[in-house]
Specification:
- Strand 4 and strand 5 form a beta hairpin.
- It contains 20 helices and 9 strands.
- It folds into 3 domains: 229 residues, no CATH class; 64 residues, no CATH class; 87 residues.
- The protein has 392 residues and is of the alpha+beta class.
- The longest helix has 21 residues.
- Strands 4-5-6-7 form a 4-stranded antiparallel β-sheet, with helices on both faces. A two-stranded antiparallel sheet has the order 2-3. Strands 8-9 form a two-stranded antiparallel sheet.
- The chain binds zinc ion (ZN).
- The site of zinc ion has 9 residues, from helix 8.
């Protein structure tokens, strides 16, 4: 079977492959048909365990996983539901997730009564919003529905349900195996303690990246398909993953976490925020270690050599005249024109005090006030000023 890159279907495919001890490409529709009882048993154990049972109501709210009426025969009902799904693979219509012709045109009565759109996670979930759009059916094939439901075994909770998807198959195999191991260990180790299954999302991601060595980008999904419906996806790009790995290798990951920059990384705005999180502008101090600041600046704000040299020379000069407010003045610059104005002010006060020019010539002035690099230049000057703060 091929991956669809739908987070639920993909995770379900890796879960099925793990249970069947096969490679994902070797899993067939017949494998799924022939093992609905086994899948049902695994899902039953997971969704009724003390540690993970909260997941069932946030994943497939109205399925056999969670319906109160099935309290006494839940395992059989889950197995029956999986069986009904796979008995209805047809060849009439294309599926809008996997693109295969696996859908039967006229669905039999028992399919419609035992399985409806409530079970198609986050495609057409059983919520008011989705029921009010008047769609009665959606072309999603039984294979994708079953795999989507199996993704439950890879779900964990961090406020909402958390799922990961990486282009890297090895990462996904590793993640799925890890989920199974966690379940087996915690099931027996918790010895009756009703554990809170909430995981610390950022620690989990860091641990996954370091241990599973995923070099490709990672998508992080947070969902709730229960009463308080929620859906969110964030992308950790391959560059960010590489950077995280390097931060970890330098022994700086704890500080990076403490500073709250992981959140900015997940939001995709690390480049615009790192200086503001690492510098206390009022006190003119570095909040965390100099090493972390230098590393992030080096990785996130690359400027060419001549520009760097000009900036370093200017900053040294400014520090010499003891401009205590320079850093905060620069931080408060809100647009390009104000930036140019500030450079001119610095130029004037420097030549007043030292009887020489801050910038050597017009060319240097043009380089340092390059409009398209304005933001990076501003950041680099703030960085150099704080590094030279001993003389500020
Ligand atoms: Zn499909």
């Amino acid at each position: 079977m091929e991956r669809t890159y739908n987070v639920f279907v993909d995770n379900g495919l890796f879960v099925a492959a793990n249970i069947l001890d096969k490679k994902v490409e070797d899993v067939t529709i017949n494998d799924l048909k022939n093992n609905t009882k086994l899948f049902g048993e695994k899902v039953y154990k997971f969704t009724t365990s003390d540690r993970y049972k909260k997941i069932s109501s946030m994943s497939f709210h109205n399925s056999a996983f969670d319906q109160p009426a099935y309290r006494t025969n839940r395992k059989e009902k889950i197995q029956e539901q999986f069986g009904v799904i796979m008995d209805n693979v047809g060849e009439d219509e294309y599926c809008c997730i996997c693109g295969n012709k696996n859908i039967e045109f006229s669905k039999p009565e028992n399919f419609l009564t035992k399985l409806n759109r409530a079970f198609i996670i986050n495609c057409v979930a059983d919520t008011f919003y989705n029921h009010s759009n008047n769609l009665s059916t959606v072309n999603i094939c039984p294979v994708c529905i079953l795999l989507g439901m199996l993704s439950t075994l890879n779900m964990r909770k961090s406020g909402y349900i958390v799922l990961f998807n990486s282009m890297n198959n090895d990462f996904m195999y590793g993640l799925t195996q890890r989920r199974e191991n966690e379940f087996c260990q915690k099931q027996f180790n918790s010895s009756g303690v009703k554990g809170d299954n909430t995981l610390e999302l950022q620690n989990e991601i860091l641990d996954l990246i370091v241990k599973e060595k995923g070099k490709d980008s990672l998508k992080v999904y947070k969902v709730n398909n229960g009463k308080g419906e929620f859906y969110n996806e964030e992308l950790l790009s391959a560059e960010y993953i590489q950077l995280l790995y390097e931060i970890y290798s330098e022994g700086l990951i704890y500080e990076f976490n403490q500073s709250g920059l992981f959140y900015n990384m997940l939001k995709g705005n690390l480049n615009r925020t790192y200086l503001y999180k690492l510098i206390d502008f009022e006190k003119c101090e570095i909040k965390y270690s100099k090493k972390l600041l230098i590393m992030l600046e080096g990785k996130l704000n690359k400027l060419n050599k001549s520009l760097n040299e000009i900036i370093q020379s200017i900053c040294k000069k400014i520090c010499k005249i003891g401009c205590k407010d320079c850093l905060i003045q620069l931080k408060n610059v809100s647009n390009y024109n104000k930036f140019v104005e500030l450079i001119l002010n610095w130029q004037e006060s420097y030549s007043d005090k030292k009887q020489e020019s801050l910038l050597k010539n017009q060319e240097e002035f043009d380089i340092i006030t390059d409009r398209k690099n304005y933001y990076s230049i501003k950041n680099k000057i703030m960085f150099e000023l704080i590094l030279n703060k001993g003389v500020l």
